[in-house]
Amino acid sequence: MRAWRVHELGEPDDVLTLEDGVPEPEPAPDEVAVEVDAAALNFSDVLLCRGRYREKPPLPFVPGFEVAGRVAGTDRRVAGLCRFPAGGLAERTVLAAPLPVPDTMSATTAAAMLVTYLTSHLALHRRAGLRAGETVLVHAGAGGVGSAAIQLAKAAGARVVATAGGPEKVALCRHLGADVAIDYRTEDFVAPVKDLTGGRGADVVVDPVGGETFDRSRRAVAFEGRIVVAGFGGGKPAELPTNHALVKNYTVLGLNLGLYRTRAPWVLTEAHAALAELYARGAVAPLVSEVLAMDEVPDGLRRLHARGTVGKLVVSVTS
């Protein structure tokens, strides 16, 4: 089969090779073989290539966290999160507990509604317990997790403040439903959040950025608010001064989507069903900015890492 593989760790441009004749992965007893139609790219793919992701698969491995396709030899349409070393940037992979894909949803959409939408749904509902009428602060609102979080928070009846870098991304956040959108390159977000909430602050913060963004979010969160740490796309994890959490009585919640695959897979199944229902009634729709060919994967990852993209980049594996 044709697949992207990593034989040594480093920058994706340097270590990714597109190969023919790669052996097809054999499914374990709890897995099914899947013929891949589409695979979505994530910042985590960059970390995986560098050896800096929390999972460290043996070399060589195929990157790619999320796919949509058909169970091999059938017309059964499925999507799911991959288990490494058999990632999704290949013509065939294996999935445990594959999620059903409705006929009304394209493979491109199905691949784009996995990592970012499951992350955002679990961040808002399972971890933060979002309630209608609350205010949500979403960072990197034009990115994959951020764009999903804006839509899902609005669908839940919340007010949304989103941050993004540059006028075009700010406009996109407003288009997605954000009540207030802030260009973090030119304006601090703390004061607008306080203004919108009468000085109270955001009830929920979804932070896939980390670093200084997390530090300033602590000033913007409400008394008894919840900050969900969903990643560190800014390249640097933040440190939490616990005395500040005590003074404001806020909660910091971690979200590691991958752990649910092995520790509580039913949580992913339930969240995916809820997302499919929201999609069916038009409440959410993934922002797919580009559909790439297989040979464009390194360039896509380069631009994604440099924050030169919006929404999701999806790879058409069968084209």
Automatic annotation (TrEMBL):
Residue intervals of the Enoyl reductase (ER) domain: 10-315
Pfam families: ADH_N (PF08240), ADH_zinc_N (PF00107)
GO molecular function terms attached to this record: oxidoreductase activity; zinc ion binding
Protein name: Alcohol dehydrogenase
Organism, scientific name: Actinophytocola xanthii
Transmembrane segments: none
SUPFAM superfamilies cross-referenced by the UniProt entry: GroES-like, NAD(P)-binding Rossmann-fold domains
InterPro entries according to UniProt: ADH-like_C, ADH-like_N, ER, GroES-like_sf, NAD(P)-bd_dom_sf, Quin_OxRdtase/zeta-crystal_CS, Zn-ADH-like_protein
Signal peptide interval: none
PROSITE patterns, per the entry: QOR_ZETA_CRYSTAL
Recorded superkingdom: Bacteria
